[in-house]
Design brief:
Low-confidence stretches of chain A: 1-42
Helix content of chain A: 55-70%
Distance between the termini of chain A: 60 Å
Mean pLDDT of chain A: 90
Radius of gyration of chain A: 23 Å
Oligomer: homotrimer
Largest sheet of chain A: none
Chain lengths: 469, 469, 469
């Protein structure tokens, strides 16, 4: 059993760390034992840098949870803002525990398998414990792993939380708090880890050559499929889609908070994509990481400008919300291949990602699917585009990429759909019409988000809940 | 006089940096002078990594001040939100200057002493100044210190600010702006540094074997004791505790802002605990730092889930505010020993910390002590639990830990209480009833936090201030 | 053509990286080829650290854009908060693309020139592409550059965005969205890069000995001059300056959001100034970076306390907004020389910067220049003070510094003024009185910032727009 497996999505750079170590060893042989210290020093510092990279970038990815929370809390109506905060702090906690107890084991401890292994309670390696206990002899075995075991766990854990965050936004304002938490537990303990086992865990998709550098499909589309399944089962908010075919606008209740959320996501994405280089010890790692941050930024910028310039023809006005989602969908799209050499590709991929998101939003609305923050267009549709675009930009195999997209989609969507249906039977996934009318904050938590501010009365509310009688 | 003393709370890892250096030196002797360069390179890079770790993690701890600010600004009623922002930006500035002029000198320049030394205006070492001035010969002496002098100062300074931040939340909505600032200056220049001198400054508690890795007692309980003393002297808000024994609910005025604050604290805590490893140069440091971040996260997550599941039986409803405080109290509890090997301990310590916080809140309320944000239960009570739990999890001496908790408590509480009493005589610590009724924003700053939003009239206000005449 | 030029504002430390490399090489000659690996390892890690420093600190500088956004969104009246969010997300995107396509080429690819070169679409070096493509032979040439090419680009790009952010705040509430974007494109593609070419690009000001470590003049004053020119051309908000000589107070609409913005800026500034050391490979770099963070923090703290204590005599009340701007102007002032040895200088420079800002605000108001957030006093006036103060503190040439301040000012102000005038002719830079009365959110975006909150009616509004007919 390989306990300390790390995902290695890039064929290109594979073996570099090993090669450097080997080179150092051969030099060591010539001068042994006198230079051993210096040589260990170099290897040690490489280990330190790899580990530190996971930790620093991982903290930024954790920060994305705050970004999703702000984006969602500002996007929902005031009467549901407390509950969405609760869902987000709760999902991050649940994701962390579920991935610790079960998820990481499924994803990485049985490398190359189809559904992973039930290897519970991942923890530091025996060598690491020995080293921390004062056994210097364990250092060599620890260093051989390339990075501290738990630094990789930490970095992978924050990715799981991202997947769950995508779901909460799409289903806001009507999914029950506890049903959402139950879904989150299964998503982060099993669904995402199994997708991960197929790919970063070197399972069958990895072996086919499927490539998804930081998770356009593995993270964002998986979350998007789960959200789409939920949106179908839970159904749209009352009054969103009217009998006359018109659609009720539900503008964000707090624009500065939404904007803050997008800036947080933009900042955190540097960790998401940059840390996915998975190493910092070598020159090539540092170069690649730099390119990754630049490409991520350019894709987001291109997404913003595309939405800025095209939202009027597509959506009927210069749309701030579409512009903010332009940044997100641009980054989702580049996430499958942020390490491409030519930044012009990043601009193109990001711009198209933003277009895909805007058009996707129209398509969803036409199908009467209610997605409060546009999570499905931004994360699923742009994620599919990005995964396919990678092979256009970097020369992979289109069919393989398509197989990856479809198989992850089929699995994530169908399992999520079944899960939502089961939860609906067991506990109900949708709040009652009266709760939806009052707002989940007052009904489920007894805590308004802005208890002192006088709020407008929604003029359509009676219409929205006419049948609620 | 040792100017560049760094705290070393762990016996285990002590001497590791020295050992590596020694190893490199011995190798150097065999090959001298040819390998000197390579060997210096390794030592240099270790120095760089130690320093950089202090800086990056220190920035995250500074960011916690924004977290406290948001948590508190969203928790108080709108009429006091500007003043709490002023208190927090002010306390961070005061703490920084006070610690520069006096505090750090007390804490670290007279190592092993009881009350530190009055060594003012800490600054770069002479060797560092020489090196920056172009004297390459000074490099060896600089490197010998293990890290840049001011990087440690920076990291310690942001900890002082945390202590002061804890106080502002508990006393919100009624403590006078300038009285609070005066207290902050003394707390950060003298009280906290003296506690620090006893412990991280290798004073008598350190020599007894007291262990508190990142400051459950030294930082959080000290702040909590100061807050408790203040709450007793300042007294509860008018109307909080009614004559009929009932307690007035004072819900947060802005939930998304509170939630943001907690996410910021969660993010910053990775720096708080991770940076407290105090070094990054060695493999063991990197491994320990990884475990620390993971344990910190798991403790917070366990605190969240515990509050989520038990707030209904304990507090009467599924409580968002308790859940958010669950994250904080979980992290406070693990802060004394985040470097334990087995993550399961972190989950247990965090979960119990959250319970301690919830029960503690009830106890405080029963004693008619008014703590606006629950700072005393979250930082003091959970901090005591964490300091004692460390020796359960990692096998220290329970009696020593208890002596540390009690002596820090006796000192911090009594000095704080005297100080609050003196301030009350000199300048008054409590705003007048009319100021409290109007709100501190309008009365003390002439600046409402949300001047354009129409606010609800508090229906109990007349009752609350009935005696105000 | 030197493609990978990095700015080197410090004479002192020049050649240190080269010296270390040379030292390692000489050692390598004695032991060649056996120690080559170890020696390359050291050089490689230096390259990695330099690169990583650019990336991590660069991310913090990017985060400053969120800080400006929050500061501005909370400072404007609610009816203009959505548009200011749009301007800020848009300017960051535009700055990134403009600097990629044109700006960086002007600033750095024709080193020592007067107006830079039109070298479009900056990207990774050929050696880096070869290395990433698997050509290990390219590694040496890559390492020779000292850092990854795009890591420097990333760090420089986020500085451009800062310059543009300064403008948006000053002109808030009345400048047209698209005129602002057009100005931003030219500012970031040409104006700032030409100033940069004169200085960090080793042009004529650099050759004269002008020193501006992290950009008090180059970044902050350039932005301030552009804002001042804009404020003059666009004119004050209706009703701001009344016929009777009185000035209408326009308090911030959301104080917690403003405060959050300032904390974000404070946090990000550690990256702004710390990263401007431009290297992390050497001991002197790490020492300097530590001093820089400490000085930046002390200058900000001194700015806060100065405003706290003097805002009552200067502005008539203890002023939160002035206190928050005290932090900013303190940091702007120290930005020209944050690497001074004695922290007391930082305190003095920051304190005076805060005074300059407060007095400057009075001067601007007396001249009936409307600057919504005080950007011109905080960034331009304090920036001038800081640039001159540097030579007082560190012993530079006052005349040279003055020449730098004046020539950058003459260029940035006059070009910006012409540009604003041209834009006014071409598309108009000012919204109509009716749009200003309704608010830009409803008029330009059709999206209120807080659509559900009931807002106060501005009692002066009729007066303000009396002539609007």
């Amino acid at each position: 059993m390989i306990r300390h497996q790390v995902r290695r999505p890039r064929g290109l750079r594979a073996g570099m760390y090993v090669a450097i170590t080997a080179l150092l060893s051969s030099a060591g042989l010539l001068l042994a034992p006198a230079t051993l210290a210096a040589q260990d020093g170099a290897g040690d510092l490489g280990f330190v840098l790899n580990t530190y990279s996971f930790l620093v970038w991982g903290v930024l990815v954790m920060w994305m949870c705050a970004g999703f929370t702000m984006l969602e809390a500002g996007s929902v109506r005031s009467k549901n803002a407390s509950v969405i905060c609760m869902k987000n702090i709760g999902l991050y906690a649940i994701a962390g525990l579920a991935y610790y107890i079960i998820g990481y084991g499924i994803m990485y401890t049985d490398v190359g398998s189809v559904i992973g292994s039930l290897d519970f309670f991942y923890g530091p390696s025996a060598e690491e414990v020995a080293l921390l206990g004062g056994d210097q002899g364990a250092a060599a075995a620890v260093v051989e792993n390339g990075h501290a075991v738990m630094s990789d766990w930490f970095f992978q854990m924050v990715f799981v939380a991202t997947t769950a965050s995508i779901v909460s936004g799409a289903l806001a304002e009507r999914v029950k708090l506890w049903a959402f938490f139950a879904f989150t537990a299964v998503l982060t303990a099993f669904v995402y880890p199994i997708v991960g086992a197929w790919t970063w865990g070197e399972g069958w998709l990895y072996q086919m050559g499927f490539t998804d550098f930081a998770g356009s499909t593995i993270v964002h589309s998986t979350g998007g499929w789960a959200a789409l399944a939920g949106a179908l089962v839970v159904g749209p908010r009352w009054g969103k889609f009217r009998r006359d075919g018109s659609i009720k606008a539900t503008p964000p209740s707090n624009i500065p908070v939404v904007t803050l959320g997008v800036f947080i996501l933009w900042m955190g994405w540097f960790g998401f994509n940059g840390g996915s280089q998975l190493a910092l010890a070598g020159v090539a790692d540092a170069v690649a990481m730099s390119n990754i941050l630049v490409n991520t930024n350019l894709a987001a910028a291109a997404g913003v400008i595309t939405a800025l310039c095209t939202s009027r023809p597509i959506l009927g006005r210069v749309d701030l919300f579409a512009t903010l989602n332009g940044a997100i969908s641009g980054m989702v799209a580049i996430t499958a291949g942020p390490n491409i050499d030519n930044p012009l590709w990043a601009i193109l991929i990001g711009a198209v990602g933003s277009l895909v998101c805007m058009v996707g939003l129209k398509v969803l609305e036409a199908r009467r699917i209610d997605d409060v923050v546009g999570a499905v267009p931004a994360h699923l549709f742009a994620g599919i585009w990005g995964t396919l675009a990678t092979c256009i930009a970097a020369g992979g195999n289109f069919v393989t990429q398509l197989v990856g997209v479809l198989s992850v989609g089929a699995f994530a969507f169908s399992v999520s759909w079944i899960l939502w249906m089961v939860l609906d039977r067991v506990m109900g996934v949708r709040v009652s019409r009266s709760v939806e009318s009052i707002g989940q904050d007052a009904a489920e938590l007894g805590l308004d988000a802005y208890p002192e501010f006088v709020l407008m009365v929604d003029p359509d509310e009676d219409d929205d809940f006419r049948d609620a009688g």
